[in-house]
Amino acid sequence: MLDVLILLISWALMILGCVFVVSGAVALVRMPDLYTRLHGASLTDTGGTLIIGLALIIQALFVFDNSMAAIKLGLIMFFTLFTSPTASHALAKTALLCGQVPLDADGKPLLDDPEQASLLARSRPADYRHGQDKERIAKQMQALGNRDEGGS
């Protein structure tokens, strides 16, 4: 009886994970622009992978009695949990840097031109030079020190 329950739970998780993955595929086809497609696909791929991995861990431990396979599956899930969102973020930022303008729900661009998208993605201004952050932080710290001395 316990074996049947374990199989039912693991197969239910596998089917749920497959539903997640298929919904990600639908998102790739149905969404209007790169950013919404990327969002839908990355969330469902990560969720589907984690749910299917959990089902496989349950089967590895209770059906096949293989703890080494369960450990390997756990590591795969751990690395997927961190690498998939990071890759999606890098892809979205690169698209912004290249001037890919996001669209609203009506399909109209949210920004006026591709240059605004590129500027939005930059973490530093285009005229940034090496060491400039250190100088800015030093000026801010000096201003804080002067304000503390004057206010005491």
Keywords, please?
mainly alpha, 152 residues
Secondary structure elements and their pairing?
Layout: H1 2-30, H2 34-63, H3 67-97, H4 114-121, H5 132-151
Count of folded domains: 1
Number of helices: 5
Low-confidence stretches: none
Mean pLDDT score:
85
Taking all Cα atoms into account, the compactness measure Rg is 24 Å
Task: Kindly state the number of beta strands.
Answer: 0
- General form: elongated
Query: What is the chain-wise order of helices and strands?
Result: HHHHH
Strand-pairing-aware structural class: mainly alpha
| Beta-strand percent range | under 5%
- State the major sheet: none
Gap between N and C termini: 75 Å
Helix content: over 70%
Question: Outline of this structure?
Answer:
The chain has 152 residues and is mostly helical. 78% of the residues lie in helices and 0% in strands.
Question: Care to describe what's here?
Answer:
α1 (2-30) runs antiparallel to α2 (34-63). The mean pLDDT is 85. The chain is elongated, with a radius of gyration of 24 Å. It has helices spanning 2-30, 34-63, 67-97, 114-121, 132-151. It has five helices and no strands. The chain has 152 residues and is mainly α. It has one domain (2-151).
